[in-house]
Every structure is written in C-alpha cells, then in structure tokens.
Amino acid sequence: MLIGLAAFSFVSAVTPGPNNVLLWASGMRFGLRRSLSHVVGTALGIGGLAVAVAIGLGALLSAAPGLTVVMRIGGSLYLAWLAWQIARSGDVGRAELDRPMSIGAAALFQVANPKAWIFALGAISTFHPPDMPGLAGSLVVALVMMVVVLPAAAIWAGAGGFIGRLIETPRARRAVDLILAALVLATIVTVWL
Q1: Angle between helices 36-52 and 135-166 (to 10 degrees)
Q2: Per-residue pLDDT reduced to its tens digit, 2-50
Q3: Directed axis angle between helix 36-52 and helix 103-112, to 10°?
Q4: What's the rounded Cα separation, in Å, for the pair 164 and 179?
Q5: Alpha-carbon distance 136 to 126, whole Å?
Q6: Cα(193)–Cα(184) distance, rounded to whole angstroms?
Q7: What is the reported pTM?
Q8: At a CB cut-off of 8 Å and minimum separation 6, what does 50 contact?
Q9: Residue 129, pLDDT above cutoff 50
Q10: Can you tell me the distance from the alpha carbon of 190 to that of 72, in angstroms, rounded to the nearest whole number?
Q11: Whole-angstrom distance, CA of residue 139 vs CA of residue 190
Q12: For position 93, what pLDDT does the model report?
C-alpha cells in the first residue's frame, strides 16, 4: 500500500498545477537554493491538508456544498491575484517579488489550491492503512505524501532555476513571466471543471 501511495503522491505532485507553476517561477527568479523554503512549505502544506481532511474537513465539505463553492471562489481569486503578481514581476516591478514564498505562505497556499485538495482527499480515502485505524494511519499517509512532494517540488524549482540562467534579456524574462501568469490563470479553469 505504501508503494502505491508513494507512486500516487509522486504523480500527483510532479504533474503541472498551481504549485508547480509557482515553484517554477520561484526557481527561475531566485534559483533552487533560495526557493527551498517554498519547496518545504509546499510539502508541509500538503501534509497538513491531508491531516485536516482525515480529521473531518473532507466530510464537512461533502456535507456543505456551499462551502466548497466559497472555497472555489476564494481559490480562484487568489490564483488570479498570483497570476497578476507574476505578470507584473518583470524588471520594472521586480521589487514586488523580492523573495521566494516563505514556508508558511507556501503551506497556507495549499488551502487555495484545488489540486492539493484532490490530492489530499484521494490519498486519505484510498491509501489509509486498514491495519492502522484513526489518526495514526492518516499521519502515515501525510508523512509519505510530504516526503514524496519534497523532491517533486524541488524538480520544478530546479527546472525554473535552470531556465532562469538561460534567459538573460529582460524581454525574454518578460515573455516567460507572461507565460507563467497565463498558466496560473489556466489552472483556475480546473477549479470549476
């Protein structure tokens, strides 16, 4: 079961989504080393979300569909704001993004990330060890998720860092900023599908 969970976690964590677009942007702007707080915060946030789902947040969302809609609206607005920040973060507005996401900000971002919710709900409902009832089994699932998310997130931040070193002109950086912003906006569509 743990191998299945690890595989599920890796596929969920490494495929494109809001986290990975932001990690790529952070890596491109700041490099992998400076983006490690963002990488760690992403893993901690995913694990925390899995634990929250296990203790009942998932059941609450199922019972109150209106709350899900409010979360979708809030998440969509937050993603649109992030896309705006990325689009404006070229050389002119560079001071606005003067450092990578902190551990806390990256962890908190998971609440607004629809892909993270699907990941947490899927992992907890499918891979909870039957021989470990209650919160202990959920903590094992969350821990495996966090351990797997770390290298997956680092891959995206590292790839962004590699691309950042290749792109030297302000015009090319501006084009990449606009592409990244468009990708973040495109993830909003997935919130509503």
Answers
A1: 150
A2: 899 999 999 989 988 889 988 998 998 899 999 999 999 999 999 999 9
A3: 40
A4: 14
A5: 15
A6: 15
A7: 0.79
A8: 120, 123, 124, 138, 141, 142, 145
A9: yes
A10: 10
A11: 28
A12: 37
What ranges in 88-134 are assigned the alpha helix state H? 103-112, 114-127
Q: Average pLDDT for residues 96-107, to the nearest whole number? A: 84
- Tokens matching residue 82: 């992030």
Nearest of 28, 30, 21 to residue 102 by alpha carbon: 30
CB 148 within 8 A of CB 2: no
Q: In terms of C-beta density within 10 A (0-12 exposed, 13-18 middle, 19 or more buried), how is residue 66 classed?
A: exposed
Tokens 């997935």: give the residue: 190
CA-CA distances (angstroms) from residue 188 to 65, 171, 192? Answer: 19, 26, 7
Rg, the chain, Cα only: 17
